[in-house]
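Issue 218. Parser rejects a valid record. Input:
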Amino acid sequence: MINNYHDHSFLIAEPGIPAGLVVKVKSCHELKVIWALPDHHAGNLPITGYKIKYSTANKQNVHGTSSTGEEFLKQLNPGTTYSVRVKAVNAIGGGDFTEDVEAMTQPRGLSLLVQHIINLPLHNTLLYCRMCPSLLLSWLPV
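Output the parser choked on:
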């Protein structure tokens, strides 16, 4: 719907698709989801929030909401791949969801080891989970 008011035209519609969806692994139980305003946001009503959908391979669908461009997904299963998507919402309704982005939480136990290693005075540390429970750790002396 287009409205004209004092020679100004503006579009009243659902928001566009959020841009730049990224899912970062934080631990064995947590992912951080980050996105930007939709590309086609100019002229639309203000965005009032975002809906987040995430699921596992066995199709456990979980819904969440956020009022900002980031959200932490918590209490997740270790070593599990999650598909995440986000849509923007305004007073008219919700726009389309982003494409799915997949990320796998860290395997159980890896999170504590990484936190311990980060506090050590190592240079060029490389941590690679080969086939959990095995782990390859290499570094250069300081």
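Fixed in the parser; the record now loads. Residues 110-118 form the longest helix (9 residues).
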